[in-house]
Amino acid sequence: MNPVTTDTEATSPQSGGSGLLGRYIDLGRVGPLLQSFSDSAGVASAVIDLDGHVLTAARWQPLCVEFHRRHPETLRRCIESDTSLAARMRVGDRAAVYTCLNGLTDAAAPIIVDGRHLANAFVGQFLTAPPDVDFFARQAERFGFDRESYLRALAQVPVLSKEKACAALEFIASSAGMLTDMGREGLMKEQAEQRLRRTLERLRKSVDAAVGALTHTVEMRDPYTAGHQERVSELSVAIGRKLALRSRSITSLRIAGLIHDLGKIAVPAEILSKPGALTEHEWRLLREHPETAFRILREMRFPGPVARIVRDHHERLDGSGYPRGITGEAVHVESRIIAVADVVEAMSSHRPYRPALGIGAALAEIQAGRDTTLDSQAVDACVDLFRRDGFAFSQAS
Ligand SMILES: [Fe+2]
Fold it and tell me: What kind of architecture, by CATH, is found in domain 222-387?
């Protein structure tokens, strides 16, 4: 057993590359198992991929590391041994044994995952009978190895009885079986993760489709504010990102922004598009829209408290908002952000009862409410976005 490795790997045959097999098998668990087997049986063991990379190995023999791998001819023989063994392996094989031209014996068993032969489990660098010392002495002479040190290294090579060789083979076959099972588990885990990712993507798409339908439902009844919710969503997300909110909050902001005026579907269309001032009764009806939206959305499972964020988007920090008149921290962070974005978008856009007031007036308005009605961090982030970062709505109002 003498795989194609770098010199560093050859002299210290620990874990090498992992490749495809490493995706499915926890080599960190396999290494200690091979080590304890090699320590107790006195033979080298390894998992080697089909390209000859040592993925994990234990107890390399000095005869191989210090001699056979150092001379091109003996190295060629080692590689030939591995290649012959690997080439013999077939799906369904239990194990194979091969004695290399350098005089040592290796045994290997295939590791098959999902019908694919990915690697071999090896035990090797042993003898099945006491060594023919003359053969090895001639080998030392032929390849220029120091005879004394070479024979000393030879003396360390284990001679396995038939029973021990069978036990080693049995071990290697069952290890390969275990590695195959681990690989199958790894493969199943990977496939399950892929399925989960696909399901989440499908869910995300259906949430987006449902949100899109709700957005357009409101805009069909209130065409004067067409695009308002998209722009509030866009600005809210930008403010949230500037405040370094978590991705879950950003997702909630995006969705809540897109449907924050959903409750207006219960407000008569003539109130929504009335050019003049509203009567007290009309105001009361209009001010119900956050609570109406909450009742519609609360049973829907969004990624985050979207229904509550929508309910609170007209609340103000000093309690002057609606529908509940709550104050300070009781108002969701995301609702405070949408409140700021809502004011800015509404003032900078045209309305049936007035022309667009412009972004300058909108920013002055939110700054006037800083810390009394509106969240100071959200206001500052929003002003920074327009004044320093060059933020502009992607859709015209
Ligand atoms: Fe609103």
Answer: Orthogonal Bundle (1.10)
